[in-house]
Amino acid sequence: MSKPIRNPLLLDVASIREAQQRIAPYIHRTPLIHSTTLSEEFDASIHLKLECLQKTGSFKPRGAFNKLLTMSGEQRAAGVVGVSGGNHAQGVAYAARSLGAHATICMPATTPKNYLDATRSYGAKIVLAKDIHAAFATCAELEKQGMSVVHPFDDRAVAAGQGTIALEILEDLPTLSRIYISIGGGGLIAGMAAALKATNPDIHVIGVETSGADAMARSIAAKQLIELPEITSIARTLGAPKVSEMTYEHVRQYVDELVVVEDDETIEAMKFILERTKILVEPAAACCLAAARRQKQAIGSDETVAILMCGGNVSVADLASNGP
Hints:
Elements: H1 13-23, E1 32-34, H2 36-42, E2 45-50, H3 60-69, H4 73-77, E3 80-83, H5 87-98, E4 103-108, H6 113-121, E5 125-129, H7 132-144, E6 148-149, H8 156-172, E7 178-182, H9 187-199, E8 204-210, H10 215-222, H11 245-254, E9 257-261, H12 263-277, H13 283-294, E10 304-309, H14 316-320
Parallel strand pairs: 2-10, 3-4, 3-6, 4-5, 7-8, 7-10, 8-9
Antiparallel strand pairs: 1-2
């Protein structure tokens, strides 16, 4: 009897384990903490994975390092280029500087100043474009000039790097039964879900988006890739206008549920996390707590739950203006 043909778009857990070894010298192994306050609220064991404490303030260096470390020296010497509204820019810039490569980042003109300043501080050149669509077009032109693209999500090496977060959670929390992971373009959840389901198919994986940045939920509902005309959510770092076939397939195969929350729920969760845990996270992370709260009645008292805090890059100006 012949073996079933494996979907070539899907990551295997071996590639994620290889990525973990490859990037270990360059990143933090971020803490996983038990929250007594949230555990009492949910009547379950609730844990926060503090990837907001990663280098550059988000999970993005994991994928960037894995991608650059799998390139040849000549490719790195020719320069790398990325597209980002914030966190991916910093991740690529930091990884490139650490490995002696020059990075150019194409960013929308509306990118907040704190993201621009941080990206420049890591030595990257920034090219501003009218919007995210124009930024991708500029990136394509630079690729034609010989630069190697480090895509924010549509890249197996990048997704494998992000998936290393799941391996750390499983090492620290082998009884994990449920996890909430935010979705932008889908590279993070693609890598993490592949690792989680390969290790324990019974883990309930929930993907989270915010209304106005919900390209994945719309695509899954339509059973085809849907492009958003604009990003209207306050969760700017979830602002991919379109997911990829690769990330779509991972969600279709490995993610049990998608939850789309509203901005006001997200900001309420963000303020709660800051006030009660003293951890500052961005809306793209806080939305996962908002989604868990939506499902509070479905979470059993015997469950062990992880909520991913994927980033913490919020400017003081945003906080001072009563929320980002």
